[in-house]
Specification:
The chain is of the alpha+beta class and 59 residues long. It is built from one helix and four strands; from the N terminus they run ββββα. The chain has a four-stranded antiparallel beta sheet, covered by helices on one side. The radius of gyration is 11 Å and the shape is elongated. It starts with a strand and ends with a helix. It comes from Shewanella sairae. This is Lipocalin-like domain-containing protein.
Amino acid sequence: MSEEISIEHHGETITASYTVFEDTLHVYLPDGSTRVTELRGLDSESSARMHLKMYVKRS
């Protein structure tokens, strides 16, 4: 099942979806790229949000 997260940046809402398979987080970013992280006890939503924030910083 896919979840979504959004952040505001310069008045624009940027959204990414993410899924968790076993202990692996897959974040699907707006440009079509994917980031993968082993959670090892980390919160999946917080981890996905960090990937989205880093994406926005690099854009």
